[in-house]
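Hi R.,

Here's the chain you asked about this morning:
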Amino acid sequence: MPAIPSRFLPWRDRAGRLSPLKAAAFAALFVPGLATLVQFELGQFAGQPIKEMTHETGLWAIRFLYLSLAVTPLRFVFKLPRLLLIRRMLGVAAFAYACLHLSLFVIDKAFDFAIVATEIALRIYLTIGFATVVTLAALAATSTDAMVKRLGAKRWQALHRAVYAAALLATVHFFMQSKLEVAEPTVMAGLGYWLIGYRIVSWTAGPAAPARWPWLAGLAVAGGVLAALTEAFYVGLLRGANPLWILAADINPDYGLRPPWIAFLILIAIPIAALARDRLTRPRPKSA
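And here is the predicted structure, written out as tokens:
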């Protein structure tokens, strides 16, 4: 069997040199899966362990998907071009965990594919989840350099913008599967709005525009507000409650730190950190 060229190894860069960043990221991608397996072996998943593992792998699929989308904004904001080395890796990891998520669902149904197909067809949140996996499969299959050349850069970029559709579908699936436990889906929705907003500003005002702190602060506010509205209308629709009551809870300190505020604090930390980095790395004027 011919040896694999060193540049194709996931811990090496395009020149075939060892990349500490890629090596660390590659190792970290296995940690959630191994931790889930250890929890299963130790009996820490009470009641229905396969379902618990299904939920865990689904959570990490959407987390890695969001991290892959965050690479481009963060490399511009913090001036870290080497972050681009791990974007593809994160996207493929999101697909791998999504496949594991779907496989565990099949195992939970005792490999009865008729039941699996029926549930996916009849339960809308499963239909949405399956559509997410199919979208990620298409993106993973065309993520190689060879496919970029075959499709051409413009067609490849147009196809891979579907990753935002996958993120939207995954978030909707997350909300619907969580029912009323919508704390993390609400935070994810806020981050998703920020990512989409960043891209829209980049496409309309140029790639450098959204990396400036006024835009980042504005996008953080927008992400928090839209997360609050999403939570209010979703929970209000599910419970038959007035969404204004849920919005009122968000500004009432008696209810503690609500999910939209968590999303806002994560997002507002980005321009604050970017400003701090600029101040620390700004060259000092030479003394007379």
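One quick note: The first helix runs from residue 20 to 41.

Cheers,
M.
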